[in-house]
């Protein structure tokens, strides 16, 4: 087994990725056990230093399950993946987890909105005990930001935001080559920027949040049909509202690239991105933000596992900024 080499001066404290000096953009060494926690599926894999997904197992997220039943389904996948190591001649040195938010302050417990059986569930500790690996959890949108900066549409870019527009709307921001964490680890959660003053009531309690207007859940509530059946008018309205939020972020943070994943955005495709780009062009006019682009994420179905692996590698200090 190869071991990751921490960056000079970086600390290794896998309980809290914020305590490391880890960044993005160069390949780590070693292999990561990658765990993606989603509302519809659990997926576990081994991801190589190159970003290649070597092995993967998935199952539907158990419905109406309690916390221990959910953990049992997850650890069964973990055991299957770890059992494949000997035959492959690789050994995981870290476990990285991407999970739906919100996160706890210490990145220790999870309360994914779409998984009701886990509320304040100590997933990091339980997985660490089960795998005997240093284990780190982060928000799935932040994990995607790491993945897209490592190997995807933002490769080589030091300042960008990654977004997920699916059931909900989330995001992660990389500035100066560093993923932003924030006080509670939720930095970049673009879903609660106001895009329609006095608009629809959001799950957070405010009105007119991006998530309340442009998420798959909201589109279904507005139109009475799944987002996949949305009309051209709804697709373009959704793109416009995403673009409105993106323009504010670009103007605020001096960045020129936003990468978007998620079933709603990617399912809507070109008309969605064109509407978003037109709104950005109209609202990001100040010189440093003018020319900001919104593009689809490029890692596809591998993005969540690569992102989870990146969360793990980041904690080891083995994702480093090169420019
Ligand atoms: Zn909100």
Question: Would you spell out the secondary-structure blueprint of this structure?
Answer:
Layout: E1 31-37, E2 41-47, E3 53-60, H1 67-83, H2 85-88, E4 92-99, H3 123-131, E5 135-139, H4 140-151, E6 160-165, E7 169-175, E8 178-179, H5 210-214, H6 216-223, H7 232-253, E9 257-261, H8 263-268, H9 270-283, E10 293-296, H10 303-315
The protein binds zinc ion.
Region (Disordered): 1-27
Pfam families: ROK
Write down the Rg.
19 Å
Report the sheet with the most strands, covering strand number, pairing sense and barrel closure.
5 strands, mixed
Ligands (ions, cofactors included)? zinc ion
Helical content stands at 25-40%
Tell me the number of strands.
Answer: 10
Please provide the ordered H/E string of secondary-structure elements: EEEHHEHEHEEEHHHEHHEH
Low-confidence stretches: 1-26
Please give the count of helices.
10
Structural class: alpha/beta
N- and C-termini, Cα separation: 29 Å
Give the total of domains. Answer: 2
The CATH topology annotation of the largest domain reads as Nucleotidyltransferase, domain 5
Lateral arrangement of strands in the main beta sheet: 3-2-1-4-5
What proportion strand? 15-25%
Q: At CATH's second level, what is the architecture of the largest domain?
A: 2-Layer Sandwich
Q: Could you name the CATH homologous superfamily of the largest domain?
A: ATPase, nucleotide binding domain
Shape: globular
- The CATH class of the largest domain turns out to be Alpha Beta
């Amino acid at each position: 087994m190869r071991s990751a080499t921490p960056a000079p001066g970086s600390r290794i404290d896998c309980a809290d990725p914020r305590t490391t000096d880890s960044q993005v953009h160069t390949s780590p060494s070693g292999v990561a056990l990658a765990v993606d926690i989603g509302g519809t599926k659990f997926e576990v894999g081994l991801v190589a230093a190159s970003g290649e997904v070597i092995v993967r197992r998935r199952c539907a997220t158990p419905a109406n399950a309690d916390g221990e039943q959910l953990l049992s389904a997850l650890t069964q996948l973990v055991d299957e993946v770890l059992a494949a190591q000997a035959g492959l001649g690789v050994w995981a040195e870290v476990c990285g987890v991407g999970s739906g938010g919100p996160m706890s302050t210490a990145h220790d417990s999870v309360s994914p909105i779409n998984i009701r059986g886990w509320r304040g569930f100590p997933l990091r500790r339980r997985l660490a005990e089960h795998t005997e690996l240093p284990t780190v959890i982060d928000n799935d949108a932040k994990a995607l930001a790491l993945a897209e900066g490592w190997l995807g549409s933002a490769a080589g870019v030091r300042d960008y935001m990654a977004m997920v527009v699916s059931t909900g709307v989330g995001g992660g921001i990389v500035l100066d080559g560093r993923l932003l964490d924030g006080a509670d680890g939720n930095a970049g959660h673009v879903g609660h920027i106001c895009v329609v003053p006095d608009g629809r009531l959001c799950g957070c309690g405010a009105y007119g949040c991006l998530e309340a207007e442009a998420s798959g859940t909201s589109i279904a509530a507005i139109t009475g049909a799944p987002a996949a059946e949305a009309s051209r008018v709804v697709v373009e309205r959704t793109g416009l509202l995403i673009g409105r939020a993106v323009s504010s972020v670009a103007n605020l943070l001096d960045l020129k690239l936003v990468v978007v994943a998620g079933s709603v955005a990617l399912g809507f495709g070109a008309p969605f991105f064109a509407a978003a780009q037109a709104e950005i062009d109209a609202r990001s006019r100040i010189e440093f933000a003018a020319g900001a682009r919104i593009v689809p994420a490029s890692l596809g179905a591998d993005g969540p596992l690569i992102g989870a692996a990146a969360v793990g590698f980041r904690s080891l200090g083995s994702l480093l900024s090169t420019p």
